[in-house]
Amino acid sequence: MRELQRPNPLLWLAALLTTLALLAALALTLSSSATAKSRSTTATAHLASSFLTGIGDEQTEMFSNPLWKQLHTKIVRYIVPYDAAVRPYSLQAADEWIHDAEAAHQQVLVAFYHSEYTPTKMPSVSLYQRDVQKFVKLFPHVKQYQSWDESNRGNIRGVLASPSATAAARYYQALKRVCSGCTVIGLDVLDQENISPTLRYIEEFKREIYRLKTVMPKVWGLHNYSDVNRLESWRTRDLVKVLGGEVWLTETGGIVQLGSSFTNHHGAGLIRSAKVLRYMFKLAATEPRIKRLYVYDWSGGTAATRFDAGLMNAKDQPREGYLVMCKQMHAAKCNVKIARN
């Protein structure tokens, strides 16, 4: 029998060291991969939770609905006439809505808008300041305001008037004067299909703020309906960049029905709206400056309603869009029966 050759100690040691080095490199690679995956997951989770989500609506029925309650939102938005404090009907509606919102432990954002009595007439700055000051004093717990809802919407003959960018800056300054300690959102603009007019409006507003020597807003409001309802993001990204600072999507959501642009024939609008809502949440998660998102709105309409973006239908039944919202908010019971109208 052949005698076994005795191994060379130096060669054996070199082989051992080489093996150990290879194992160490493999372990480092696996560790780095796991760390990268962990960081990626953490980043995704951070993005998903980087903004607060709430709902904007003008109906008090929302607060008593079990489907709304299970969402456990923390923020809501309400649009109110700038002269509500001196108009009994408008004041009663605002008082009931804000009372129910606060009873439900919601942080209320109030957006002032045109008068229900003189919608085509813009108030003077002094009149605006006088009326909103009265409102602020009546609701001491409300600390977040917008000086004018969708201020760049423009004038609609016989329906409503909107402030120029210069007037919007002066309203903003007036509201800041009478609401010490409040967060006053700088502008509240609609993106529009063509954002060039919106960009000019923002530029003019900022120029007037400088001229007035007023503190430049740190938080801005944006309605990005045109963008998300086309499943696009460039309008939102461009406007967020131009606005600067922190941005709240004070109105956003999936349009079920709006004239001939967005129809709801045979329920197509309901399916489209749900798809838009899913896209909307993903878009918001990729923009670190977006800190709040107010879905508009809770209360849906009928086939005769011109603008309908409701999570509920006219009978207060949940639509497919509600299901998207429910899952986004991680509610316990999202397997609800969906309405087809």
Largest sheet: 8 strands, parallel, barrel
Give the number of helices. 10
Order of helices and strands: HEHEHEHEHEHEHHEEHEEH
Distance between the termini: 92 Å
Low-confidence stretches: 1-17, 22-48
Total tally of structural domains: 2
- Kindly report the oligomeric state of this protein: single chain
Largest sheet strand order: 1-2-3-4-5-6-7-9
CATH architecture of the largest domain: Alpha-Beta Barrel
Top CATH class of the largest domain: Alpha Beta
CATH superfamily of the largest domain: Glycosidases
The computed structural class is alpha/beta
Average pLDDT reading: 89
* CATH domain fold name of the largest domain: TIM Barrel
Bin the helical content. Answer: 40-55%
Task: List its salient traits.
341 residues, eight-stranded parallel β-barrel, two-stranded antiparallel sheet, TIM Barrel, globular, 10 strands, alpha/beta, 2 domains
Give an overview of the whole structure:
It contains 10 helices and 10 strands. The protein has 341 residues and is α/β, with parallel strands linked by helices. The chain has 2 domains: 7-49; 52-328, Glycosidases (TIM Barrel), CATH 3.20.20. The strands form 2 sheets. An 8-stranded parallel β-barrel has the order 1-2-3-4-5-6-7-9, surrounded by 5 helices. Strand 2 (75-81), helix 3 and strand 3 form a beta-alpha-beta unit. The model is unreliable at 1-17 and 22-48 (pLDDT under 50).
